[in-house]
Structures
1.
Amino acid sequence: MKKTNINSFHLIFIICYLLFTICTIQSQWLGALIPDFRVNDDSTVRSQGSPDIGVDGNGNFIIVWQDSRNEPNNNSGRVYYQRFNFDGTRLGVNFPIGHDTSGGPKIAVLKNGRFIVVWRAQYIGNRDIYCQRFEANGVPINQPNKINDITVATYTPDIGGIGTDSLGNFVIVWTDYRNGYLYPNVYGQRYDSLGNKLGGNFRVNDVLNTSQAPRLAVNKDGSLVVAFLGYVGGSGICMQRYDRFGNTIGGNQRVDDDSTNKPKGAVDVVSDGNGYFVVAFADDRYIINLSIISYQMYDTSGNKIGVNQRADNGVSDDRGNTKVSMQSDGKFFISWSEYFGTNGVPYGRRFNKNGSPIGVNYVIPVNTNFSNSGNCRIFMQNLRVYSIWEDNRNGNWDVFGNVRSFVNPDSILVSVSHKPIKVKEFKLFSAYPNPFNPVTNIKFDLPKEDRSQKSEVKLSIFDVLGRGVAILVDEKLTPGTYEVQWNAENYSSGLYFIKLTTETGFTAVQKIVLMK
């Protein structure tokens, strides 16, 4: 009899899933976990690395990396890319771009799926950086364009990053050695949405020959901030803001508040698209060569919010390779590498929009049964954290990735569908199936408020002891009917409670039973 009931639940789930799939509704995937997957599809034992990732408005993503599959001595190789659907389905195969001898790629993906890749190359004896624009299906829009105005035959510029505004205009920054390898500077180049240069290369650092390792964040209106290792009252983490026309806003500013000027590094910067931004970096202020991860928040006027704060919990003695990504609502995620001897492991931690940590840091790869990984890159959107990294679980260096939920990193699947119909009152419908194993559907109505088009909504799961076990929704939502799917595969059988709350004071609680 028990077996029959379980089969019935499975049948109900399948029917509900099919109905959900064919309905004409707008869907956003908040945290569909895509377990660890290998990006490069070659069967060689050659090395792949230096990955980067971009995501379009529908959650589809593209990964670029440096690949030596055709290089017998694991030399620099060539740049490849791979497109993926939002659920992790491959779109085509690994595809090479750029020059035969190229590497260090960075990517920016527009909301419509078009993308821009930038890379460094040794071409006809010269060392330069190039960019190329692509349609969403991967078809090139133009030929590769050289970015740097001055070529240095001995030293290749190091690409810092690329960012785009809401119209497709973009900016690229890099470390430039036109004055010699011992005299690095940070340079940038602006482009319009058609790939035409807007002016020439511009220098970011105020003090000549002192700066390197830039990162940038471009806002929706085209204004931007560049963070870099520089010199303002001593060596440290610096930043420079620009308006949407490329004019500087003030001069270089010091980000770290360490008066001892001890070494800093591995800087990154991100914005919410409207000017609020966060700078994260590796910080040796306590013990040289044993870094912590620090971050500094800024308001839209470029003023510091509070002081430098520590991001990590201190798993190992040394850290680096800092990355930070943020949603438009201000929630952000910081990743870094924890170093255990010569081995590195990517870790990450979540933060709410006021900068407070959510939980503790955790290992980003789902499978940790291997010795070494690193050089992680992240992208956060719609409460999904996309991560990619260099990985040696197969004995050679590959590029691996996964997608985990921001609200519940250990969840298997959390999806939210939205039907923008008029509703008159708040309502939490009965979950179905209930009892369930392991998936149940939770539906609620959200009416329009007179004062706002959106309402802050939180949908949580609690166990019988009142402990929160999952947050399925925690954001401002537009009016309409929502349906949330919770997969409790990683939870024990028993009684659970659904709790729906809104900023206007509405609260509803419902019992559900997980039977395995």
2.
Amino acid sequence: MDMDIQKIRDIGSVAVAPRILRTPRLLRSSNSPDIISLSDYRQLRTKDDSLLSDALKGTERAAIFTIRINRYEMLLETFSGCSGDQIASHVEKLLLSSLRETDFAVHVSAEEFVVLIRDVALITDIEDVAIRVIDACSYLEIHESQRIPISIDIGIANYPNDATDASDLLRFAHIALHSLDSDRHGNYQFYSENQRTDHREGIMMTGELIQAMQEDRMELHYQPIYCLKSDMIVSVEALVRLRTREGEIIPPDDFIDVAERTGLIVPLGAWVMKKACMQLASWQKCGAKDLCMSINVSPVQLGDPGFFDLLEAAVTESKIDFSSVEIEIVERQQVGTDVDLILSRLRNLGVKIAVDDFGTGYSSLANLARYPLDVVKIDQSFVRSMLENSVAKSIVSAICAIAEELNLNVIAEGVETIAQEKYLLSLGCQKAQGFGYSKPLLASALSRLFSNTPGGVFRYTLREGVM
């Protein structure tokens, strides 16, 4: 597998232990809580005579916050005039302004702080502090004329409810932080026992994923997308799978979330883009000249400063047209202004932009106006139930009508029956995919189809049964 193995190892280590700030600083304020910078994160995890253990003495209820500055690396890339020290210094001031004199904070790494909230009577008091901290750390004012929007996430562990030991509290706060939805920023999360189990399983999956990437056990399967009027395969969607050493296939739902949380999605996504583009070039040489490739893109990938260049290189090196590539973004993901610009740049090259799982997010109609879209993919949950559920039927009908008005193509996901196909055709839906046509296939299976048909065009209908 063409991946930077050292980067994969580095990312794997970050997944289970925060980074260390190598240059310690001690910042104190006479009117505010102290912020202490540590040279070694383990100082916080020492059970006896540690800062946190001492601070917990004499308090009946307390909370530990683990705070992360979101997209810290992107901030450094975007605002090249700002050093990491400048950003950290400004966040420290904002954090100090939102805490009480009885609290204190520790600057653990470049983008991470640990805060002890002492002497709180109720859970709601802890929530109030968390909200105040998030609100205070919503922007940086580096210069008088420049305000930089930022966001932080907070993981929270309660003393004594969750644990009485400082080391355990710190660990639980970290688990709560990592359980937050990676698509949405500016939130806080309390620790729960379920998160502990999920965290342990996540660490195991991280190890499995790193090994699979190192040992070339990641695979791409391709699901055909059909034109409903011509019955032709017009494009394929590349879907990544993990094969265990025992030969078992692990679906993406079981590892993509872990890949996003750890950052492994960046090298994995780069590999997917390169391999999918090379495979499309091979099929087009076999005669499937008009075939397109659809590639799923994570919000973490979109937020990576190198994403645009990676995709551009994958297409250029494969010697395929940009117009034959489509990227799918999930409808629920939150993207910033920088990502909007990247999508516009890609579309200017000719790359098509599709919004996946449409109708399942919080602002579906707003996204139609915001994104430079070409395609809307109707979520399979609506398609599968639309003939039995009047609400789902109305949603599918409305999506098709809006898409037609906006001159967007529509792809229905999860089509399994002739009745579903006929209804979609009556609504003007142009394309469909689903197990009724074909499950995702290895490239070799699709290659045989394209090489054995005139002009590399394969026709197929539901009436002929599942492939």
